[in-house]
Amino acid sequence: MKVLLVTGGAGFIGSNFITYFLKRNKNYILVNIDKLTYAGNINNLRSIENNPRYHFIKGDICNYELVNYVFRKYKPDHIINFAAESHVDRSISHPSVFVSTNILGTMTLLEGARHLWGRHGFQGNRFLQVSTDEVYGSLDNSNDYFLEESNLDPSSPYSASKAGADLMVGAFAKTYGLPVIITRCCNNYGPYQYSEKFIPTCVLNALQDNSIPIYGDGTNVREWIHVQDHCIAIIRALFYGKPGQIYNIGTGEEVSNLEMAARILKILDKPQELIRMVKDRPGHDKRYALNSYKIKSNLNWSSKIKLEDGLTDCVRWYKSNPDWFKE
């Protein structure tokens, strides 16, 4: 069997990916390294914890000795790096944590992969870096879209740390020939998302009849994708993507923060008056929007879950799983 190493697999996107991947790829062993910070929940993976093809290691990707131990023991054929500090507000308060995990942790993985795979010339290996559309910065009008070749112009310590990691990944490809792929996705939503993120925040507050805080005037626009569509895109990039390439992953479904909150309140049959405008955060990007033609045309991927349907199912999941939020 081949071995896929996933980092950050107890988080929102990582746990959804692991569950989806294991069910559909019977010829793979999957190894998951996760530090289990506040945003990581091992219970997200309860359905597959006894699967003999799944192995969990609690640990920090910044720990060079641990990473080398895992590489020596399992000898992964491929690596997908989901591990990241990912909340913009937290990065403004504690930027050094983001630099440590997102840049230094990524470099530790790259070094391990270089030494392990370099012995046989990197044949049959892939290192996939899961990045974000936020590395491109902000679009100030409704007509432009970011291409994979667009300049990196991050606005927050979070997005700057992810941009730094992307540059390090690209440098390892150019310097050492490491077979890397970078994916940059728009905003995800779906089950198991940590409560500090925008959609869970809206749902949790609405269910308790608390006000929903919206930064600024609420006109900041985000492009949204269901996490399952993102997982499928990552698998397409891993198996069919070309090493050295970057792939934007987007749906074209753009919604302002104010409109998203209003949609959630409508689904829950709650009053729109629960929306409360608050002071804008520093460096708040106006709009993200991706041109995803490359992954659609080259890798035959397209999103399947429409925002209207996916959001309704997502909100119902949160409503039906109060114990998960209490944990």
Helix count, DSSP H or I runs of 4 or more residues: 11
Structural class computed from helices and strand pairing:
alpha/beta
Shape, principal axes of CA atoms: globular
Q: Round the Cα radius of gyration to an integer and report it.
A: 19 Å
CATH-derived topology: Rossmann fold
Span from first to last CA? 35 Å
User: Count of DSSP E strands?
Assistant: 12
Calculate the mean pLDDT score and round it.
Answer: 95
CATH superfamily: NAD(P)-binding Rossmann-like Domain
Q: If classified by CATH, what would the architecture be? A: 3-Layer(aba) Sandwich
CATH class membership: Alpha Beta
Instruction: Report the order of strands and helices.
Output: EHEEHEHHEHEEHEEHEEHEHHH
Q: Low-confidence runs (pLDDT<50, min 5 residues)? A: none
Largest sheet: 7 strands, parallel
**What is the count of structural domains?**
1
Polypeptide structure, described:
There is one protein chain. The protein has a single domain (2-190, 225-252, 286-304), classed as NAD(P)-binding Rossmann-like Domain (Rossmann fold, 3-Layer(aba) Sandwich), CATH 3.40.50.720. 41% of the residues lie in helices and 18% in strands. The protein contains eleven helices and twelve strands. The strands form three sheets. Strands 3-2-1-4-5-6-10 form a seven-stranded parallel sheet, with helices on both faces. A three-stranded mixed sheet has the order 7-9-11. Helix 1 (12-24) links the parallel strand 1 (2-7) and strand 2 (28-34). The longest helix is centred in the N-terminal third of the chain and has 23 residues, at 95-117.
